[in-house]
Amino acid sequence: IRSLLELKKLIKEKKIDILHCHLGKSIFFGIMIKILFGKEIKLIVHEHGRIFKNQFWYNYILNKSQKVVNLYLANSKTTKKKLMENAGISKEKIKVLYNFVDIEKFNPNALKEYNRDIQRRKLGTEKNDFVIGFVGRLVKIKGCMDLIKAVNLLVKKNKKIKLLVAGEGSEKNELVNLTKEFNLEKNVRFLGYVEDIKGFYNCLDVVVIPSHWESFGIVGLEAQAMGVPVIASNVEGLNEIIRDKETGMLFKPKDEKDLAEKIKLVCKNIELRKKLIKNGLENVKRYTLNEYITKLNKIYKMV
Questions:
Q1: Which of 14, 22, 46, 194 minimizes the number of CB atoms within 10 Å of its CB?
Q2: Quick one: which of 292, 290, 286, 244 has its CA closest to 266?
Q3: Is 120 within 8 Å of 127 (Cβ atoms)?
Q4: Using a CB cutoff of 8 Å and minimum separation of 24, what contacts does 28-35 make?
Q5: Is the backbone of residue 76 left (phi > 0), alpha (psi -120 to 50) or beta?
Q6: pLDDT along the chain (303 residues), means of 10
Q7: How much is the pLDDT for 208?
Q8: pLDDT at position 2, please?
Q9: Selection from 165, 158, 151 nearest residue 123 by Cα
Q10: What is the pLDDT of residues 213-226, one digit of tens each?
């Protein structure tokens, strides 16, 4: 109650017209403020991916809030679809607003501050290795196990294949054990949380996103902005921002053999790699902060 009263006071003092709410707790408070105190205020609920979990109470709250919510924002067309399917949100009340990449931070020029060979040695790889990168939570839906299985297939014919895993999660021990089972300790390195993510991207020849589902896939755009080719699973959310054989490569979800083939293709075909880098840098221009702010301001005026 105290928090609600403080929010009410802040809204009145600052003459706030729009409440733009992200994530569960924020959404709950936004709905309560509108019901109890602020019938004139405009309420926007921004969905980033929880809707994919198809949780009964979350879906129920979103569905029943339609009378007080002026607009739902989805971070992709796929998320919009899930809002309609799982929570029964009216199509007319949803707008798509893609996430953005900070191209001031993520761009090829940012790599000039790094010595690639030194950076690679720091992370346990060598100049002539073909280095694959994974960035994300180590949980089942992120598909890192599929990637390790694909690396196992590749290493049998190419010992220079290396995988760097950036991230933590509940599946980490299982992934480490699988690596030991395959005798891949020299080829797979678990780095934990990586603070210098630009330095990490600088070491890579390709980024792989093997997710079983994604609402958007910001890692793919960060990699493209840094001039790193992307291979991703052909799932909604990822295939929305990556065009197969144009801005990246897509593979069959949960299929380590198909993934291994796509990695091998990018590894061997230098011209393809150059094409993916060039098109990726062009693709990411659609997801800049300026684009995001321009579209968001139009949405605010519309509401």
A1: 14
A2: 244
A3: yes
A4: 28/61, 29/3, 29/4, 31/61, 31/65, 31/68, 31/69, 32/4, 33/4, 33/7, 33/8, 34/68, 34/69, 35/68
A5: beta
A6: 82 89 89 84 95 94 93 96 97 96 90 88 94 97 98 96 98 98 97 94 96 94 96 96 97 98 97 97 95 96 93
A7: 98
A8: 80
A9: 165
A10: 999 999 999 999 99
Cβ neighbour number for residue 76 with a 10 Å cutoff: 24
Instruction: Look up the pTM and report it.
Output: 0.92
pLDDT at 227: 95
How many angstroms from the chain centroid is the CA of residue 287?
13
**Identity of residue 147:** L
Domains and CATH numbers, the chain: 2-100+288-302 (3.40.50.2000), 108-286 (3.40.50.2000)
Q: Are 46 and 21 in contact (CB under 8 A)?
A: yes
For residue 162, what pLDDT is reported? 98
Q: How far apart are CA 79 and CA 48, in angstroms?
A: 7
123, 143, 218, 227 from 200: Cα distances, Å: 8, 20, 16, 13
Contact in structure between 167 and 176 (CB atoms under 8 Å): no
CB 127: neighbour CB atoms within 10 A?
8
- Beta partners for 45? 21, 72
